Amino acid sequence: MKTTGGSDDQKRRAAERAAELVSSGETVGLGTGSTTAFAIRALGRAVDGGLDVRGVPTSFASRELARDVGIPLASLDEVASVDIAIDGADRLDADLNLIKGGGAAHAREKIVAAAASRFVVVADPSKVAETLDRSVPLEVLPDARTVVAGAVEELGGDPELRRAERKDGPVVTDNGNLVLDCEFGRIADPASLAADLSATPGVVEHGLFVGLADEAYVGTDDGVDVRR
Ligand code: 5RP
């Protein structure tokens, strides 16, 4: 999986501490991204050691990794609830509001996070900001791309279709949709912008996670900073 932002050691520290929160008998939401991948690997080792859990992956990539490391899996539609979800973030503010979707998986990530009794964010210090200040990914129905882009401009944003790095074409999500990365500058009122984006027809899901995270584990060079 692609590595972004802070060091792998910082990410690993955060993710391994979060994985220790999981108990036998629990259903665990498995987020997506390079930080969460460390948690999935740690859970795989714990399963080898006797931990009895089932994982609910939030993307094709996390499903493949979880399967490789031996975590028993259930799909989202097979579970009524999730005990704990562990996932990364692209930005994390002081109120634990997030911008997610760097891996274009935020639609399923949000469903799993919202279904979880406990949602734990794992991150490195490069993700932490006073105010959310990064472009917001929108998963959009392919046919709605142009009208959603117009609606984003009316909200004061600057939308850009996400393109695949090594292919000549757009990024297509696991759900067969496109991603618009929308620059809004510093987002002073994430709840208000989230409501406007949710109300825009054609938006399958946006990457603002407002009021969902219960705690954040931020890996540093010598430990883990726990934020609640
Ligand atoms: C995927 C996500 C990721 O959790 C987010 O992009 C952080 O990824 P990483 O841990 O690789 O920095 O939201 O949709």
TrEMBL record:
<dbReference type="GO" id="GO:0009052">
    <property type="term" value="P:pentose-phosphate shunt, non-oxidative branch"/>
</dbReference>
<feature type="binding site">
    <location>
        <begin position="87"/>
        <end position="90"/>
    </location>
    <ligand>
        <name>substrate</name>
    </ligand>
</feature>
<dbReference type="GO" id="GO:0005829">
    <property type="term" value="C:cytosol"/>
</dbReference>
<comment type="function">
    <text>Catalyzes the reversible conversion of ribose-5-phosphate to ribulose 5-phosphate.</text>
</comment>
<feature type="binding site">
    <location>
        <begin position="100"/>
        <end position="103"/>
    </location>
    <ligand>
        <name>substrate</name>
    </ligand>
</feature>
<dbReference type="GO" id="GO:0006014">
    <property type="term" value="P:D-ribose metabolic process"/>
</dbReference>
<dbReference type="InterPro" id="IPR004788">
    <property type="entry name" value="Ribose5P_isomerase_type_A"/>
</dbReference>
<comment type="subunit">
    <text>Homodimer.</text>
</comment>
<keyword id="KW-0413">Isomerase</keyword>
<feature type="binding site">
    <location>
        <position position="127"/>
    </location>
    <ligand>
        <name>substrate</name>
    </ligand>
</feature>
<dbReference type="InterPro" id="IPR037171">
    <property type="entry name" value="NagB/RpiA_transferase-like"/>
</dbReference>
<comment type="subunit">
    <text>Homotetramer.</text>
</comment>
<dbReference type="Pfam" id="PF06026">
    <property type="entry name" value="Rib_5-P_isom_A"/>
</dbReference>
<comment type="pathway">
    <text>Carbohydrate degradation; pentose phosphate pathway; D-ribose 5-phosphate from D-ribulose 5-phosphate (non-oxidative stage): step 1/1.</text>
</comment>
<dbReference type="InterPro" id="IPR020672">
    <property type="entry name" value="Ribose5P_isomerase_typA_subgr"/>
</dbReference>
<comment type="similarity">
    <text>Belongs to the ribose 5-phosphate isomerase family.</text>
</comment>
<feature type="active site" description="Proton acceptor">
    <location>
        <position position="109"/>
    </location>
</feature>
<feature type="region of interest" description="Disordered">
    <location>
        <begin position="1"/>
        <end position="20"/>
    </location>
</feature>
<feature type="binding site">
    <location>
        <begin position="32"/>
        <end position="35"/>
    </location>
    <ligand>
        <name>substrate</name>
    </ligand>
</feature>
<feature type="compositionally biased region" description="Basic and acidic residues">
    <location>
        <begin position="8"/>
        <end position="19"/>
    </location>
</feature>
<dbReference type="GO" id="GO:0004751">
    <property type="term" value="F:ribose-5-phosphate isomerase activity"/>
</dbReference>
<protein>
    <recommendedName>
        <fullName>Ribose-5-phosphate isomerase A</fullName>
        <ecNumber>5.3.1.6</ecNumber>
    </recommendedName>
</protein>
